[in-house]
Structure formats: structure tokens, C-alpha cells
Amino acid sequence: MMRNVVRKVTMAFLLLLSVPGNFFAAESIVIKGSTTVLPIAQSTLEAFVKKNPDLQISLSGGGSGEGIKAMIDKTTDIATSSREIKKEEISLAKSKGIKPVAHVVAHDAIIPVVNPKNKVNNLSIDQLSQIYQGKITNWKEVGGDDLKIVVISRDSSSGTFESWDHFVMKKTKVTPRAQMLASNGAIVQAVAKNRYAISYLGIGYINKDVKPLRVNGVAGSAQTALSREYPLSRELYMYTNGEPRGGVAGYINFVKSAAGQEIIAKEGFVPLIDLKRTEKNN
What we know:
Elements: H1 2-7, E1 15-17, E2 28-33, H2 38-51, E3 56-62, H3 64-72, E4 78-81, H4 87-95, E5 100-114, E6 122-123, H5 125-133, E7 150-154, H6 159-169, E8 179-181, H7 184-193, E9 197-202, E10 211-212, E11 214-215, H8 222-227, E12 233-241, H9 246-256, H10 258-266, H11 275-281
Parallel strand pairs: 2-3, 2-4, 6-11, 7-8, 7-9
Antiparallel strand pairs: 1-3, 4-12, 5-9, 5-10, 5-12
């Protein structure tokens, strides 16, 4: 039930968690950023605060860029991001005395999705690029029905948008006719309702309401993302100002632990290690 709530987030999502006790002595932690990382953060936080009384955590989405900006402005303790921090962001951070430290918490695959009624199953990166540039405008041009393509994209503050630009667009411009949406949840709803639509999601947001496409003949999965066989594979991050301490360090260490990584896998994302292989070895 909680996972379904998270998936419906369309803008910023705010969660305040607190449990009475004294382990972290009324410490308060603020986490802001990526809507892709949001379900990972929420689920791991719920488990973490159960073991750490008196810890208060506020969690919100809004986009990777917003999270990194908040870290630079010193309004968040952890910035979640579905992309690597940019050189210009690092320079700005250093000018304000901020030292960004990256913590990779999971792997991900960006999956192109269409309406379940669409008969297209596979697109090449070049075809995706041409669709998003507005050069391919009808599904019949890529083996589908004679229907106009409705292009849906994430907004420019999204780390997923930045990753799509890196992997697919390669600095070419997205057609001005594209609909720009603020969250993965909004994209799921839009594609589910529109037979003509195409968009893209983090792997943890794929559900029965949308149809995932293969890219260059390879299906996005935990295995192909971890091996990097899938061409749109990436890492998911949590950024801190310097090396984390106290509750921040405790939480990030929990996320990267076996228990945290199992939660990440249950959320549909890709853990840092192959948990099944690890279980067999043990």
C-alpha cells in the first residue's frame, strides 16, 4: 500500500518520521531531491527509524537538481540524485564551502514505456532519439500502428531527464511539442491513459499500467542493469556535505547494508550486489 502511495507523487513529497527514544538524541535530518530515489528513501527510512528512536527525518522529492541545490544552500543534510553531480554544481558548492561527497546506494535502468495497447516492443537508441527530437512522429515508422506519437518527458530539473539526455539525446534538443512532467508517478498515469504516448521511467516505477520496451534488443532488468548490458543503466546517489556523521552516517550505512539493499530490491530497484548470488555463497 505504501509503495502505491509513493508512486502517485507528482511534485514534492513530504514525510516526517519520528519515534520516541534517545539513540540519536533528538537529532533531525532533512533529505531532499530525486523522485526516482524517493521510494528507496522512504522504505529504508521506515526500517531505519524503527531501530533508531528519537530520530526525526523530513523527506521530500522535487528533482535531483533541487536536492543538489538544497545541499549547496545548506537546507538539506542529504541530497538524493538519479544523476552524478555536475562540474558547475561542484564549483558552486566549493565556492560556498560545501564539499559534496557521493554515496552510490543502488543501480537503476531507465526504461522507455508505452501504453499496453501499443504493439511496438523494441526501439534502438537512434529511434528513441529521433522520436524525442520530433523527427519520427508516427508509430508506423517504427513498426507500430498508424498513430501519431505523443512524446512525454521528465522536466529539466530531473536527474532522469539529465540521464536521458546523456544516453539518448546526446545534447540534441527535445521537441518543443513534448509534454514535460515533474515525476515518475505523473508519467505512469499519463502513459497509462494515452494509447499514443511514449515516455521513460526508473525501473522501480514499472508496473502493469505501462509497457516497458527493449532498447537495442535488450530488456531492462536487475541483471542487465548490474552487468551494464542494458544500454540505459545508471547509478543512484545520496550526496552529503563532507563525510557524513551521526544519524546521517548511520542512515546511509544502513541503506548500503545487506538489510537496506534487500529493501531496495523489494522496491523494484537494483541493489549494489547480486543478492541471490550472495545468498548462495553464504
